[in-house]
């Protein structure tokens, strides 16, 4: 199996499937020798901020000298982004070899007919577990794919610490239609006696659900104390602040990134208390070096990429626009149809001087015509394209120093758009 064949196999699996449970994933991993059982994990669930928090923790651990695996989803530019070690993507040949190994195990399991077929995310997670074990990582920062309770990553034994980031109304058809119901699904990653860190700004019912679950599991509960955040300075390209008498800076923009950072700091503090050699200098250096494309990422002074695709993400993006964007605002946006796209489009189209609706490369894409129809209600200067490359080129041809271009929405859009923009700027 080569790299292309590996991706064809992975993407050929059903994305979600109908089976809810972990027995299928457990049986798959047992047939592969349960490589995950001998590994150390930081397990991260949540709606928004998972990727940023995972990256901040992993960056600090790398600086501290630990061989650090990082598992995230989805990818933006290259599939290998999903499985990294010390900031480097899994090599193509390793992905091909391990996918072939996992495919053979899946063929046997699917052939038994005990369960519905293994899903795409289960297959990818199995490959990741095999990769991190093969490379003997000291620790893996493991991002949940969806929910938590029935997520394929949740077959791990006791993590060093569980982290729950900001919770929003997303994937409501699968996870539930209230904050409390979604929180209950996220709390599925909480294990007996294992510490839990919760994002500090949350609804009361979310806090109650998490605290109750921690009590039930005898899990130490840590909520970052926002009153200890001092000297906070939010800029268009990052933030600086003091937390617990430690001066910290992140190159991730938005006040929500300060809260992600203190969440990551508390998770790292748990690891430190449990014997890992992590100094404040490691955290400071790791946070300052952390880069994460697609999170209010400034490619140039007036071209910004942001993967806001649900209400809380759009709210954060709009707060950023209100604070830092002057002049003419041009928005290029693509969404998938199973998100709260009417709210998201309304919020940002209302701020735009020009709105451009595009389609993303996904079977779940929102058609540009439907995107445009929604946007026209709030921005009279709106148009749509089926071709992302043509849309970006038309914008770039007329972009002036007085314009700010924000490319936003689904992460499926950002990687494709970034390639076009960079090629144009050459």
Folded structure, characterized:
The chain is an alpha/beta fold and 426 residues long. The protein folds into two domains: 287 residues, UDP-N-acetylmuramoyl-L-alanine:D-glutamate ligase; 129 residues, Alpha-Beta Complex (Protein-Tyrosine Phosphatase, Chain A). It is built from 15 helices and 17 strands. The strands form three sheets. The protein has an eight-stranded mixed β-sheet, with helices on both faces. A hairpin with a 2-residue loop joins β9 and β10. α4 crosses α5. The two termini are 36 Å apart.
Structure keywords:
six-stranded mixed sheet; eight-stranded mixed sheet; globular; 426 residues; Protein-Tyrosine Phosphatase, Chain A; 2 domains; UDP-N-acetylmuramoyl-L-alanine:D-glutamate ligase; alpha/beta; 42% helix; 18% strand
């Amino acid at each position: 199996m080569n790299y292309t064949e590996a991706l064809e196999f992975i993407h050929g699996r059903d994305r979600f499937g109908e089976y809810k449970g972990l027995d299928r994933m457990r049986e798959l991993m047992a047939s592969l020798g349960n490589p995950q059982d001998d590994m150390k994990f930081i397990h991260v669930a949540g709606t928004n901020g998972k990727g940023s928090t995972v990256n901040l923790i992993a960056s600090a651990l790398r600086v501290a000298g630990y061989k650090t695996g990082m598992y995230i989803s989805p990818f933006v530019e290259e599939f290998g982004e999903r499985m990294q070690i010390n900031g480097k993507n899994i090599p193509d040949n390793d992905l091909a070899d391990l996918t072939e190994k996992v495919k053979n195990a899946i063929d046997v399991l699917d052939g038994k007919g005990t369960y519905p077929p293994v899903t795409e995310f289960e297959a990818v997670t199995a490959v990741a577990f095999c990769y991190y074990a093969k490379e003997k990582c000291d620790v893996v920062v493991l991002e949940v794919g969806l929910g938590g309770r029935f997520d394929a990553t949740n077959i791990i034994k006791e993590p060093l610490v569980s982290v729950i980031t900001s919770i929003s109304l997303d994937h409501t058809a699968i996870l539930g239609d209230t904050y409390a119901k979604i929180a209950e699904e996220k709390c599925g990653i909480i294990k007996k006696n294992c510490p839990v860190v919760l994002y500090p700004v949350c609804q009361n019912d979310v806090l109650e659900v998490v605290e109750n679950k921690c009590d039930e599991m005898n899990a130490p509960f840590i909520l970052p104390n926002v009153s200890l955040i001092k000297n906070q300075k939010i800029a268009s390209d990052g933030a600086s602040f003091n937390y617990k008498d430690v001066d910290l800076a992140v190159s991730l923009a938005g006040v929500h990134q300060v809260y992600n950072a203190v969440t990551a700091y508390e998770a790292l503090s748990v690891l430190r208390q449990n014997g890992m050699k992590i100094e404040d200098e490691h955290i400071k250096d790791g946070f300052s070096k952390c880069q994460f494309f697609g999170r209010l990422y400034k490619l140039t002074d007036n071209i910004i990429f942001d993967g806001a695709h649900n209400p809380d993400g759009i709210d954060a993006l709009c707060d950023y626009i209100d604070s830092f964007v002057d002049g003419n605002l041009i928005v290029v946006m693509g969404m998938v149809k199973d998100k709260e796209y009417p709210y998201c489009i309304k919020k940002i189209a209302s701020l735009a001087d020009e709105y451009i609706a595009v389609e993303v490369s996904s079977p779940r894409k929102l058609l540009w015509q439907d995107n445009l129809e929604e946007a026209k209600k709030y921005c009279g200067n709106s148009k749509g394209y089926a071709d992302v490359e043509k849309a970006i080129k038309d914008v770039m041809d007329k972009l002036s120093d007085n314009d700010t271009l924000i490319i936003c929405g689904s992460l499926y859009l950002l990687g494709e758009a970034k390639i076009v923009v960079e090629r144009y700027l050459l």
